[in-house]
Amino acid sequence: MKVAVTARGPGLDDAVDPRFGRCPYFVIVETDTMTAETVENPNAALGGGAGIQSAQAMADQGARAVLTGNCGPNAHRTLQAAEIEVFVGASGTVREAVESYRNGTLNAATSPNVGSHFGSGGGGGMGRGRGRGGM
User: Fold this and answer.
1) Which fold has domain 2-103?
2) How many whole angstroms separate alpha carbon 55 and alpha carbon 77?
3) Which of 49, 79, 109, 123 is in the most buried spot, having the most CB atoms within 10 Å?
4) What crossing angle do the helices spanning 73-81 and 50-60 adopt, rounded to 10°?
5) What residue ranges in the chain does DSSP mark as E strands?
6) Which residues of 77-100 are buried (b: 16+ CB within 10 A; e: fewer)?
7) pLDDT digits (tens), the chain, 135 positions
């Protein structure tokens, strides 16, 4: 079965990226043979809709499950509509995440585990942005 793993790099020994829609890579792994192909995520820098677009891309790749750290509501809804199971809390390397999936130690997510726009880098600073620049 094909599973898509969110990854920081293009290989089986690269780290799982905790973000679904904005991960740099998806490593698509055939669980029976551990053969993999990598898809660079063109949606990582989108201003909005990255989760939905990434979910559609995984459906186009034929993934039957997604292994990731976190999945927001729009992506989760789109993955469910495509009948792709979502497993959150994946960590370690891509290879380790797939092994956890194969061993049954990852739990299926029946709902999103983060809010919209998680991981989009939308600043969390506490400043008011009105500095005087040394005046």
Assistant:
1) Nucleotidyltransferase; domain 5 (3.30.420)
2) 9
3) 79
4) 20
5) 2-7, 25-30, 35-40, 65-67, 85-87
6) bbbeeeebbbbbbbeebbbbbbeb
7) 999 999 999 999 999 999 999 999 999 999 999 999 999 999 999 878 999 999 999 999 999 999 999 999 999 999 999 999 999 999 999 999 999 999 999 989 999 988 765 555 544 333 444 444 444
